[in-house]
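Record format v2
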Amino acid sequence: MDREGALRAAGEWDARYARGGALPALAGLPVAVKDIICTAGMPTTCGSRILAGWVPPYDATVVSRLKDAGAVIVGKTNLDEFAMGSSTENSGFGPTRNPWDPERVPGGSSGGSAAAVAAGMTPLALGTDTGGSIRQPAGFTSIVGMKPTYGRVSRYGLVAFASSLDQVGPMARTVADAALLLQVIAGRDPKDSTSVDVPVEDYPGTLPRGVRGLRIGIVREAFGQGLQGDVGEAVRAAAAHLGSLGAALTEVSLPSIPYALPTYYLLATSEASANLARYDGVQYGLRVPTDDLFTMYTRTRRQGFGSEVKRRIMLGTYALSAGYYEGFFLKAQRVRTLIRREFLQALDAVDLVLMPVSPTVPFRLGEKVDDPLQMYLADIYTIPVNLAGLPGISVPCGFSSGLPIGLQLIGKPFDEATVLRAAYAYEQDTDWHTRRPPVVGQSRSQAVAEVHKRDHATTPPRRAPKRGAQTRQRSSRKSKKARTRK
Amino acid sequence: MPMDPSVVEHVARLARLELSDEERQRFARQLGSILEYCATLNELDTEHVEPTSHVLTLTNVFRDDVAGTPLPRDAVLAAAPDHEDGFFKVPPIIETE
Amino acid sequence: MSTPAIATSYETVIGLEIHVQLLTASKMFCACPVTFGAPPNTLICPVCLGLPGSLPVLNRKAVDLGLRTAVALGCTAQPTSQFHRKNYYYPDLPKNYQITQYRYKVHPPLAIDGSLEIPREDNLVPGGTGRRIGVRRVHLEEDTGRLVHAEQHGRIRYSLIDFNRSGVPLMEIVTEPELRSPQEARTFLARLRAVLQAIEVSTGKMEEGSLRCDANVSLRRPGAELGIRTEVKNMNSLRSVERALAYEVERQRAVLDRGQPVEQETRHWDERRGITFSSRTKEEAQDYRYFPEPDLVPIAVAPQWVAQVRASLPELPEAKRRRYVATYGLPEYDAELLTSSAAMARFFEETVRLFPHPKAACNWLVGDITAYLNVAGKEIDELPVTPAHLAELLQLVERGAISGRTAKEIVAEMLAQGRRPEVIVGERGLAQISDEEALARIVDEVLAEHTGPVSEYRAGKTQALTFLVGQVMKKTRGRANPEMANRLLKEKLKS
């Protein structure tokens, strides 16, 4: 929480608003930032004890773009350590809970951003998505979360987990807000060699075009074993709803999908094993003092990293090591080619691909922490999209016993506009997104305390910044406007 | 099948991780089963499939050779666990074993 | 006396791995300036410190310089090449991986398969053909930081790290193991350095570390399989390369002669003691776990790019050397020396442009001037002297305004201070006496003072003339124009 900074920035935008004249897209709007994105002068911990207290000397490109657009960075949100997890239980500073049921996880790794948006603490947040870390928590908390095409948004200042998969993306209460936020952060950045120079469309402007004539392919393999019954029903119903709005529904087949999970775990952990090698106690962050360098390295990393991070570093190191590279890492890279190829072939015939976001509704805290493979299965529908590098969105599409269900729509490379447009059409014709978690019905400070009670990392705000509440109203006014344009 | 303890130890050393006995055993078991799962990839024939390093088809992304302003040293050293005379300071390198 | 027979039956096999610091304004992957000798940790940014979240972006010039080298060495530039991460923990490596190009089947380095000619062993025949040494590959990588060890009682107490050098663009050139003697290794390195300077890829200063050389050395019986090699490091000059390798060759020879095996290891050259020693620390069997760097995209080199680079290359030392011999008629040895540094070759050519007597210019450059540079330990472009200065000096001599002896006296001052020779001559009153009237007076004095030799000369002892010339020179403190003095003496002695 950057209370003073946020209030000051909001005050400045108030003053400019009062003077009149043009304001940038996000003038005065509060945005929460996942704590794996660098913010100059604000601690960036990646949810890890190894980076406790580290203050980056620079802003991530997405943060500079937010500031340039007038956004007020209200604080940093909790996450699974280095974004490695699907429940936000792996944070070095304690878990985040689901506003819909505090006994359940908000998903992960962007669980802090998801919970903050769902609980109404902020209208907008940034998440990051390596294997589903935006979409899965968005689905688990009934908000909108989008992973853009790989290369659409700059990764400069996003602390790397798996460099070939990571993307920053918007999380918001509505599709229109998500489109607005994406508009601000998308586009080529000379500081990121993998950010692509493809023109950024006017996302909010193209939303109202509807889905008539869009071809949507339902993934056959995504509705089999392991999918919770009512989740599958809700997603099928959502597909039918899109059909009723004029989309042409077909079935597509992605036979390699079952192989996405092992492929992902080999590639992501291999890249992570190198990306996380720099946390060694030399330049910044935690150091366990010892008499020799080797022990300083090993002990610092022992104390600084949590179990899941260590496990993944071990797995990745193994997959790259002599004798195993060909059989594991290189094999996974080849399977990745197959998976991407299948997606692109499917997207030759259809405009969008449709799947569930997660196979289940939010699970209970502690339910899967001891079984990594079970935990990994929570991302079975989101991971293939990262491997293929495609844009994907999660939109609320129902509830099962009061717990949220998400619909996933996946588009062609750099065709975020069509993804958003279909999600918007569905959202505008349904009311799932208007439901609020029970905590929001209580007084604001109670709600916040509920979410953050006991174990949340960041200091719970006693009261939301005054400006925050007001700009939130302006934001919903905007959504209304967009709706009337339809 | 659990990972061989000597392999666990070797990998931990490569990754500069000190493991407790409990972790060694747990990781041996967990990594063993994860790798077994990963071995399902061998069901796929990839003999004529090129590997994908990342999905982009970009080449030749460059910056011009123009020097900019470095970070102020004090700001950088302020984050350092230990420093001396403008240098980062670390314990001596002693090869173990 | 059987030892020499055994000793001569080994063949020396040397391959070099040369790291070249590229002449760029900024680092390989960030905009930090590349300068030598800045205070520690003042040329650093999130990228070259490997701070969380930072990303590399490749310097176009570094690729260009790599391609210049590749073309100059006749390498084949690869249509696409890619960077890899080389994973190992070391405190001078901020990310604990180095971004480097690596030859792994589908991921070739920037360029492969070139060569550079060296003269045949001990044989600098004019116009003779040399031997081509294969260049296996040329690739790009980032440099590491620098460690300073604080020692006490011979033990390292702690280490200090300066990241100024971290991320400085390096090019690695690897030769085939085709060098057959330490002297050949030195010559190869000297010629390579001349090429790198000529194409403005590097300063090539070994003393500043902008050219670093490691060598793999082994011995074998002629025609046999390659022997076990050692890697020799820490050689900081051309001379130390030759010395270190000569030592290492003899060491291995002695080991083999004793019937023992050579141990595969890394050995460090100790310049002061003149030996190589094993780096006792037991090196862990390295497993670098290379994999393609996902933060960078591949380099694609189209034929047009190579053609452009080729067209932009200046004349290479090899061609220069041939031209100097063929068109200027310079001896092979002198041509080699003039082309051994780009600065020297430039200086020579500019001097010849101003004063078109290549042999005279060459004599001064390979003689007095090279001697001066060797003592000063400098390159000619590090001195204030210009080609115009040398051309003026040569003109003064040719015109007879000063004697060759005088020229030798003032050349040091001209080199060190960059002052015009004519000014130095004027100040010191060193101008040659070529005024016939003035010299005639002095000749008359000499003839009057030395009647003995005069009579001897007139009696047919022509050697007496030498004595009389000497006396004229003595009286003028060497400033007399010797030809004129000679002529005047002869004329007056006849009369």
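Chain C has three domains: 11-306, 315-428, 436-494.
Residues 1-7 of chain C have pLDDT under 50 and may be disordered.
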